[in-house]
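Support request, please re-run this one:
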Amino acid sequence: MVSKNPMDAVKASKRKRTATPKKTDSVRASRTKTSAGRKKTEKGKKGKSGIWKETPRWLIWTITAFIAVLYLFYIYNNELKPYFYRWDFGNTYRGRPVVHGIDISHHQGEINWEDLAKAEEQGSGIHFVFMKATEGSDWQDSTFQKNFEEARKYGLIRGAYHFFSNTSPAEKQADFFCSQVRLMPNDLPPVLDVETKGKYGEDSLRIEVKNWLRKVEAHFGIKPIIYASRKFKERYLTDSVLDSYPFWIAHYYVDSLTYDGEWAFWQHTDRGRLPGIKGRVDMNVYNGSLESLKKLTLAADTLVSAK
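Re-run finished. Output below.
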């Protein structure tokens, strides 16, 4: 028999305890990791919200109020303001009955001319219609010919305008307009729409505009009308020669045209709505009576002598 030594048993027990990991150490390590994770999460949360916590409340409210004011200004300027002034002058303007009219292009799409001819604003019907005919030296509005015929068919006083381009010579543009537009007795004089200066200096722009006007006047036998915004007219299109032509002034959202010179037409809004037209349309008034508007139109003998 082999006798067991008590000391050997003690040594074996110690080796066993050393080889087996302590459970308490594992638990402690797990708790340490969990604690570190929580601290990291809490630190992240504090980092995200810390900016707002550190920002003074008065600054937050100031920024919010500023954004709100900008938004309200946008709504007022684009949605409300145009309506405040559209018909404020009522049935009369400067003591005379208002003669209403519109101007159109392909942007208005297909028009129901029967409905438009019956349209009334403040008890006054639509009496005249200007239509975009050409632009530059080679572009014609796709709806012009049809609309020009329909306007006459429904008894509206019609007119054609050319959009001035600064990429081709004015005389070439005048030739193109004359080749595409056939005016008849009782039509309004041709119109030159000038909105941008482009590459031209002030003097050269006026020279080009005069070149177009002279050539078109010689072709139709009547002084054309010049369309421009109030500020553009006053800055670029003012001299003794140009001021002898009738002017059509664009000045929106005011109850009275603040232009000191002579003018024939006033485009007072681009937000009009009328039966027969989908969407918005430019609205105009004539500076005079319906009888004087008719006198402004082309006479038969004028067209004959021009040819």
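The chain has ten helices and twelve strands. The radius of gyration is 39 Å.
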